[in-house]
């Protein structure tokens, strides 16, 4: 692989930045040492020496500047000299890690006017990602399971992709738990029947290890109240899937507030700030129109009332869930 003269990495997820750096270095075919500097601290003289001076034994090194968004405007012209030519033993990597705006990533004005930035644009030396999104989840899981030499039981990949947190570090911790459980079956006795989980295969039941249950999708739960005739099915779901212990319902209420917040943004004309797959977004737009400002405000109130009821001891998680459902029936019947 012919590597770039320098690279810009633009992503608000620190773990994804880290993974991308490792992938680029691994694909280069060379062994790089790493020198890492932080843009939210004063840039030391060692940073400029690392960019311009080869190592003692001329070993390839990656000079990585994290959180470069925090640097003052007068920093960017100083990079013109170090980035003006190709250094065989130095690979500069500049990381911009602020959240994306409505129209995508934003770059410091003093950076976007620099000639080296224009070269990076022309030669495609800029990698950008909005972070781990629901759309990216399934491809990421396919790569992950292949790299771990594991497999998914039918339907499990989609179920897992629907509930993993949209944060690479948090998702990684959840996947580590699932991997340990799947590998623990490798030493288990041979399967006695078809129902015995296979060694190295991730089963639906394994997802119970996650921070919240795959079956309790907060928006799908809300959406059920919008359908006439679904009352019996909703109550059956509530009674069959208890949200005890307490931390389970708190996670569910957090998801409910997150959905309400997205719908509030959509209702208030900030739909561009809500990053969702088109189908899901259209569903939330429809519900936001149906509920209006009053109904969306009521969603926040109901989530807070349920949480306070549990924390005060006046209700257990199941009672709080039943009361929440009753109030949602009332809200959607208006």
| Share of β-strand residues | 5-15%
Strand order of the largest sheet: 2-3-4-1-5
Total strands: the figure is 7
For the termini, the CA-CA separation is: 62 Å
Shape: globular
Please name the CATH architecture of the largest domain: 3-Layer(aba) Sandwich
Which structural class fits the helix and strand makeup?
Answer: alpha/beta
Mean pLDDT across the residues is: 83
Report helical residue fraction: 40-55%
- Report low-confidence residues grouped into runs of 5 or more: none
Question: What is the H/E string?
Answer: EHEHEEHHEHEHHEHHHHH
Q: Any idea what the CATH superfamily of the largest domain is called?
A: P-loop containing nucleotide triphosphate hydrolases
CATH class of the largest domain: Alpha Beta
Radius of gyration: 25 Å
Can you walk through the features of this model?
This is DNA-directed DNA polymerase. The structure is a single chain. This protein has twelve helices and seven strands. The protein is an alpha/beta fold and 334 residues long. The chain folds into three domains: 7-128, Rossmann fold; 134-209; 218-332, Zinc Finger, Delta Prime, domain 3, CATH 1.20.272. The strands form two sheets. A five-stranded parallel β-sheet has the order 2-3-4-1-5, with helices on both faces. Helix 2 links the parallel strand 2 and strand 3. Helix 9 (231-240) runs antiparallel to helix 12 (317-332), helix 10 (246-267) packs across helix 11 (278-312) and helix 11 (278-312) crosses helix 12. The longest helix has 35 residues, at 278-312. The mean pLDDT is 83.
